[in-house]
Amino acid sequence: MSSASRAMFLKSTTGLFHFPTSLTRICRAPWGLRLWEKLTLLSPGIAVTLVQMAGKKDYPALLSLDENELEEQFVKGHGPGGQATNKTSNCVVLKHIPSGIVVKCHQTRSVDQNRKLARKILQEKVDVFYNGENSPVHKEKQEAAKKKQERKKRAKETLEKKKLLKELWESSKKVH
Amino acid sequence: MELWGRMLWALLSGPGRRGSTLGWAFSSWQPQPPLAGLSSATELVSHWTRVFEKRGIPEARESSEYIVAHVLGAKTFQSLRPALWTQPLTSQQLQCIRELSSRRLQRMPVQYILGEWDFQGLSLRMVPPVFIPRPETEVHPNVKPHRGMPYQELKRTWPVAESEEAWNREVCTCWPSSAWLGLAILRELVEWVLEEVAQRSYAVGSPGSPLILEVGCGSGAISLSLLSQLPQSRVIAVDKGEAAISLTHENAQRLQLQDRIWIIHLDMTSERSWTHLPWGPVDLVVSNPPYIFHQDMEQLAPEIRSYEDPAALDGGEEGMDIITHILALAPRLLKDSGSIFLEVDPRHPELVSSWLQSRPELYLNLVAVRKDFCGRSRFLHIQRSRP
Questions:
Q1: Where is the composition biased (Basic and acidic residues) (chain A) (predicted)?
Q2: Dihedral (CA of B96, B308, B61, B375) sign
Q3: Is residue B367 within 8 Å of B374, Cβ to Cβ?
């Protein structure tokens, strides 16, 4: 990431960062999490509140999570720790006590990143839990699914057009 | 290092090895049962988890997940596209997994098997016997709660335990106990250095500031992490191991940080260091020096004992040999009121404190001790005061 983009992230003091809308859309898809990971990894200043920044439409912010209502478990490791041990497990298990929702995150090799991601995912799940279909999470997923369908439809149409053109071209060649 | 450990090192550090696990000619020491009928990623993970468990390999599930994910091009199993979990693997992929897993059966650390690992968001090459950076050393920037109680306030309400045991009881949980953890306070070496730098505002904006010396850079994890977070900083990274110097070079280039790091093959504990330091006074000295008590070296897990350079671990009788060397050199290394940040054994804060008291001519003070994420005293901040 260029230093200019980094500066963009670090400028904001409220924790709400402005992404170009196309990036935000990419972040919504489950495997777009990879891009999300890259962004959060390169700019450690990004807080989990980023999820409150919606795409094109003006979605209301998600229900916030109170750290007091969370319980977290990650591997402490046996033995003396430090140089004397070598642990690779950095899975984070995060529970939202009031709703009982549990999120297990092992998306990255970093405990810290997993903690952040776990909070992001938990925040979305908790919002859906309390807001159901009204949750921006739900709405965005619906919209994303709809757009995907439209893209597929358009792609199919384009393919058929190309086929038709090709047939026309070939038949015109035969004539001459 | 045991003989087969050396062999592996020679094989693994040969040329053209970078990134290539497919062309590997390493043969299994033991024949594995045929994998007929097991062809998806999920099934393979279960299979190898069982194999590892039967052979008493620690972190059986994590190891097999990392290996399978790696072969499929992902850093963790969970981060794989869900479709890949159930898709049949090619025979080449199966073979690759088999070879990597056979190394795990030889207790090779996962980081060496994969040839890479992450440290604070940086992807670094890992090559035996260069020391693998530990998670305790990593930066863990505070996770900010959104609305609710500010993190700083929450920390203040968290009981600060009088004793180590009370701390451990309240903060940590042991896997796989069912005890749930409240909010753990993470304090790590690199983060601490960053906080100090932020507070001291070293000639803000001017290149070369702060100037940091890392003693014992290993893979370059700490140096490169600091460089990537402090855009103006410069680092002098020193190690007495050639493999470490080479690996730090490689990682610096991978991360395009080679212009701001000066990597020197040098044994800081040698006599020459006393007279021949090819650099001027620095703002900060950072180190994760070998600090294991010599008698504890035998108790180390095979992963560590057989594969990592003992010189990167053994700190002598009380684990203090390299620590005291660094401290003794401090007057020559540091600018006035410069700081030293060390990762140490939990028994060292007291030992270092009394050692410093016995050496008043060094004008060094143990300013603070910090705990790692498991609640063990792990980091020291020592500051030089002007005589």
A1: 136-147
A2: negative
A3: no
Per-residue model confidence (pLDDT) at position B372: 80
Report whether A52 contacts A125 (CB < 8 A): no
Per CB-CB distance under 8 Å, the chain A contacts of B373 are 76, 111
Contact A18, A53 (CB under 8 A): yes
Q: Which helix H or strand E contains A105, and what residues bound it?
A: strand A101-105
Dihedral pair phi/psi, residue B216, rounded to 5°: 80, 65
- Record: contact A15-B146, CB cut-off 8 A: yes
Q: Would you list the domain boundaries of chain A?
A: 62-131, 134-175
Tokens encoding B59: 């972190």
Return d(Cα B1, Cα B112) in angstroms, integer.
15
Cβ pair B290, B322 in contact under 8 A = yes
Q: How far apart are CA B373 and CA A52, in angstroms?
A: 29
Q: Do A49 and B146 touch (CB under 8 A)?
A: yes
d(CA A95, CA A102): 4
3-state secondary structure of B352: helix
Question: Which run of H or E residues covers position A57?
Answer: none
Span B152-199, pLDDT tens digits: 333 343 333 334 343 333 333 222 222 222 222 223 788 889 888 888
- How far from chain centre, in Å, is Cα B380? 17
Helices (H) and strands (E) in chain A, counts: 5, 3
Reading the block at residue A50, the tokens are 């980023």
**Statement: residue B1 has pLDDT above 70:** no
Q: Is A87 left (phi over 0), alpha (psi -120 to 50) or beta?
A: beta
Is the CB of residue A64 less than 8 Å from the CB of residue B147?
A: yes
Question: What is the CATH architecture assignment of A62-131?
Answer: 2-Layer Sandwich (3.30)
E-strand stretches of chain B: 116-119, 122-125, 211-215, 234-239, 261-265, 282-287, 334-343, 364-371, 377-384
Identify the three-state secondary structure at position B27.
coil
What is the pLDDT at residue B259?
96
pLDDT over 60 (residue A11): no
Which amino acid is present at A53? M
- Of the partner residues A3, A65, A107, the one whose CB lies closest to the CB of residue B79: A107
B154 touches chain A (CB under 8 A): yes
The single-letter code of the amino acid at B139 is V
- What is the Rg, in whole angstroms, of the alpha carbon atoms belonging to chain A? 22
Residue A119 token pair: 């909070």
Q: Which residues pair with B342 in a beta bridge?
A: B287, B380
What ipTM was estimated for this complex?
0.73
Phi, psi of B101 (to 5 degrees): -70, -35
CB contact at 8 A, B314 and B346:
no
Q: What does the pLDDT read at residue B144?
A: 25
- Note whether B291 contacts A82, CB cutoff 8 Å: yes
Task: Tell me what pLDDT residue B3 has.
Answer: 55
Which residue is associated with the tokens 């478990």?
A: A73
